[in-house]
Specification:
Blueprint lengths: L7 H4 L13 H7 L19 H22 L9 E9 L5 E9 L6 E7 L12 H12 L3 E6 L14 H15 L1 H4 L1 E9 L1 H16 L7 E5 L16 H4 L7 H11 L18 H4 L5 E6 L5 H13 L4 E6 L6 H4 L5 H17 L1
Parallel strand pairs: 3-4, 3-5, 5-6, 6-7, 7-8
Antiparallel strand pairs: 1-2, 2-4
Helix pairs in contact: 5-7
Length: 355
């Protein structure tokens, strides 16, 4: 039964991204050839699947996402005028962490810094991938010093290291970046990331407050954050989990990732694992934030709920909704949506420069 006045799958349970009139047609044209404009198919694994099999599935999913992201940016020329270096630092858990530093080649004087935490649901993907290197290059080309963190994942090629391993690595990187500000020519640090990286962006900030080094973070820019852990049993107040379920991401898929991130489920409502559950006291006194979400993303409303929580606690915060786009659509469709992609790069630069 359809209800035309309601958006997405609320109005039509059979809706897909390709059928949704809100979707940018350029994005749909890019997604159709690789089948991503249709409903996300049922997953071959469930929450009851043995953990070892979940890891095998995530490794395959990681390869498919890598291939898709490479397809979306195929044929693009390298970003000119950016220097890259690599640092390897010790983590708080005794492990080595690789950091990718990008800066303008002709930089003179001090510049704002961005600690970038990549997406992948805290379980898959790598900072070393071509798509994330290109994202950091774009940011650096605007006049930023960008530090990409190769944190441990809960699954995939860099796993299996469940919560809090990845968060600990992000904290180690923040401490190192702050210590190296003078050498790197950095004035202040903005923590930023998308999807699972948006989770880690917010969690790193909450942890910095708990650990007593919140002063190291000048601002926070979280994109399409994956933060509620409400995917196995979606809650009514997060309408987008119903409205946009199966649009590039599905609740089923995200629930499996959440299971791998916290197999014991002991941290199901821990704000450091799932920042949506932060209290007013947890967020009070945090630095300025931007929460950016995508209109056609199942995760849209949890990001906006976090925005409202920050605003209610008196934190300086702005929210933006990127209309017409699926989850992280403003990050991955550089070719199909060049103006949308550029607007997000410009907004991160503007935010960092305004602090």
């Amino acid at each position: 039964m359809t209800t035309p006045n309601l958006p997405g799958r609320l109005g039509n349970p059979d809706s897909t991204l390709a059928l949704d009139p809100r979707a940018d047609p350029r994005m749909i044209a890019a997604m159709i050839p690789i089948g991503l404009a249709e409903r996300t198919p049922p997953q071959p694994v469930t929450m009851e699947t043995p953990l070892e099999s979940l890891h095998e599935f995530n490794t395959m999913a990681e390869a498919m996402f890598d291939e898709a992201f490479s397809t979306f940016s195929a044929g693009l020329a390298p970003i000119a005028g950016v220097e890259r270096t690599i640092e390897v630092i010790p983590g708080v858990d005794g492990n080595d962490i690789t950091l990718y530093i990008h800066r303008p080649a002709d930089a003179s004087g001090l510049l704002p810094g961005v600690l970038h935490l990549h997406g992948g649901g805290m379980t898959i993907l790598e900072a070393s991938s071509s798509s994330y290197q290109r994202w950091r290059d774009h940011l650096a080309a605007t006049g930023l010093v960008v530090c990409g963190v190769e944190f441990r994942n809960a699954s995939g090629k860099l796993g299996p290291y469940p919560f809090p391993a990845g968060l600990n690595d992000c904290t180690s990187a923040l401490l190192w970046f702050a210590e190296q500000r003078s050498r790197l020519g950095v004035t202040k640090i903005v923590v930023s990331g998308e999807s699972g990286g948006g989770n880690l962006t917010l969690a790193t900030t909450l942890k910095a407050k708990r650990d007593g080094h919140l002063d190291l973070i000048a601002g926070v820019y979280a994109q399409c954050p994956y933060i509620s852990n409400a995917y196995e049993s979606p809650v009514p107040e997060l309408t987008s989990l119903f409205e946009n379920d199966g649009y590039f991401l599905s609740c089923e898929q995200m629930g499996v990732m959440a299971m791998v991130y916290d197999p014991s489920r002991e941290s199901a409502t821990n704000p450091l694992a799932w920042p949506y559950h932060a209290s007013a006291e947890d967020v009070a006194g945090l630095p300025p934030h931007v929460i950016s979400v995508n209109e056609l993303d199942p995760l849209r409303d949890e990001g906006l709920a976090y925005y409202r929580k920050l605003a209610a606690a008196g934190v300086p915060v702005a929210a933006r909704t990127v209309n017409g786009t699926c989850h992280a659509g403003d990050c991955i469709f550089e070719v199909a949506l060049p103006e949308v992609f550029a607007a997000t790069i410009r907004d991160i630069k503007g935010f960092a420069g305004s602090l």
